[in-house]
């Protein structure tokens, strides 16, 4: 049975997923803070907004509920020692406006499925000694310090204000039809087809000099015939149009088919070292890292990125949509580190010399690396690293070495890092 459709998402909803979507619209344009997102997500969004501002452009999102999953649907759950992550998705109508500094704009409107990953503390687990970034001043602190009062700014927080948080999100185009949408789609073919038939019959009667075409009985006959013709022929035209569109879109997804099956083999291998690992987590992490790297002014300053200079074209990137597929290409284990190669399929928006290119489909080959001997941390953030030597907490966006003892660190010992990005 179809769920009752949500009219709109509310910021004061008890559902964090709905609060996040409602916030995300205005957070994208910088009108509000994305408080329901975790630290790294907010950081990636800041980088994107800086890129848009650098271009003198404006980027606006608007999402409204639609479809049978407008109220959300659970997808999968995975855990580490202290934290649980779960994925939920919502069907929506997505609208985006990109405006260049010359005043030109491009609008898009699509049916989308919005995927979100929520990370929370496992009930009954004590995480007071874990590190978190103070929501007040941004300083890395122990959770117990934030609960009792941040030592830097004095702000106190409840655990509910620190967790749960949305730790990842992406959108995938939705090709399904609601009953009302299908009716509207069919009418777009039936009504024009019926009108063409109706006026065609009248013109034909005039040309053939038959009985006066505007007599009441003649008009009624024309109306009945054109209505029947419009319904039957319009339905077939709509069906063939939808069939060809589906075949066309299916052809676009053929290169993504490598994501099926291979990803599970990769997950099986990594689970030998990290039982809590999931391919959904890895996919989300890959897209999250790509957002930060592709929107950064200088990606080589990010500890997450270990590669060389990126192609110049990415300097014009203003928005990035994930197409729902990360295709696993191969992996190699060396000296305790796992090197993984994947292909990420994206639909990117660019502004080049004032010209807006709102939909550029691209395939990126991405190589990532992680220490196999270190457990996955689902609460990991670049802003709250802990030095293994002195155990001091610091923000890796601003420091390449521990500011307390000077010890250098390798981000791949704590989390996934990107070794290279290549357009293919």
Fold and architecture overview:
This protein is 31% helix and 30% strand. The chain contains eight helices and 13 strands. The protein has helices at residues 16-28, 39-54, 143-148, 159-162, 179-207, 216-253, 262-271, 279-295; strands at 58-65, 73-79, 83-99, 105-121, 131-133, 140-142, 165-173, 317-334, 337-352, 355-371, 385-386, 393-394, 417-423. The strands form four sheets. Strands 1, 2, 3, 4 and 7 form a five-stranded antiparallel β-sheet that branches. A four-stranded antiparallel β-sheet has the order 8-9-10-13. β2 and β3 (83-99) form a beta hairpin. The longest helix has 38 residues, at 216-253. The chain is elongated.
Strand content: 25-35%
What's the total number of strands? Answer: 13
| Termini separation | 43 Å
Order of helices and strands: HHEEEEEEHHEHHHHEEEEEE
Poorly predicted ranges: none
**Largest sheet data:** 5 strands, antiparallel
Shape: elongated
Query: Helix tally?
Result: 8
Q: Please identify the structural class as seen in this structure.
A: alpha+beta
Mean pLDDT across all amino acids = 84
Quaternary state of the chains? single chain
Helix percent reads 25-40%
Query: Taking Cα atoms only, what radius of gyration do you get, to the nearest Å?
Result: 27 Å
């Amino acid at each position: 049975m179809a769920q009752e459709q949500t009219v709109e998402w509310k910021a004061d909803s008890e559902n964090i997923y709905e609060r996040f979507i409602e916030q995300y619209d205005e957070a994208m344009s910088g009108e509000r803070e994305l408080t329901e997102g975790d630290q790294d997500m907010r950081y990636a969004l800041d980088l994107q907004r800086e890129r848009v501002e650098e271009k003198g452009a404006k980027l606006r999102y608007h999402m409204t509920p639609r479809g049978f999953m407008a109220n959300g649907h659970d997808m999968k759950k995975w855990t580490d020692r202290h934290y649980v992550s779960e994925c939920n998705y919502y069907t929506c109508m997505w609208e985006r406006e990109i405006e260049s500094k010359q005043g030109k704009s491009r609008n898009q409107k699509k049916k989308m499925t919005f995927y979100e990953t929520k990370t929370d503390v496992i009930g009954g687990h004590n995480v007071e000694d874990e590190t978190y970034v103070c929501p007040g001043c941004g300083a890395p602190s122990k959770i117990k310090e934030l609960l009792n009062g941040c030592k830097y700014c004095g702000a106190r927080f409840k655990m509910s204000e620190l967790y749960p948080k949305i730790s990842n999100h992406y959108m995938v185009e939705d090709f399904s039809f609601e009953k009302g949408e299908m009716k509207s789609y069919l009418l777009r073919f039936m009504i024009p087809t019926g009108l063409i038939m109706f006026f065609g019959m009248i013109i034909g009667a005039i040309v053939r000099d038959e009985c006066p075409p505007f007599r009441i009985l003649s008009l009624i006959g024309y109306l009945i015939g054109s209505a029947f013709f419009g319904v039957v022929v319009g339905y077939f035209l709509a069906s063939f149009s939808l069939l060809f569109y589906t075949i066309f879109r299916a052809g676009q997804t053929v290169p993504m088919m490598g994501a099926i099956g291979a990803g599970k083999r990769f997950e099986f291998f990594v689970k030998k070292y990290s039982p809590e690992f999931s391919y959904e987590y890895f996919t989300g992490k890959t897209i999250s890292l790509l957002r930060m790297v592709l929107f950064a002014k200088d990606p080589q300053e990010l500890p997450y990125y270990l590669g060389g200079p990126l192609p110049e074209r990415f300097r014009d990137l203003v928005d990035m949509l994930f197409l729902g597929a990360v295709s696993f290409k191969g992996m190699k284990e060396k000296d305790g580190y796992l090197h993984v190669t994947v292909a990420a399929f994206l639909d990117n928006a660019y502004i080049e010399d004032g010209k807006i290119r709102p939909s550029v489909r691209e395939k990126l080959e991405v190589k990532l690396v992680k220490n196999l001997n270190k457990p996955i941390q689902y609460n990991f953030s670049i802003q709250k690293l802990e030095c293994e030597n002195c155990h001091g907490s610091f923000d890796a966006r601003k420091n390449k070495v521990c500011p307390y003892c000077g010890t250098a660190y390798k981000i791949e010992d704590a989390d996934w890092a990107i070794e290279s990005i290549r357009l293919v």
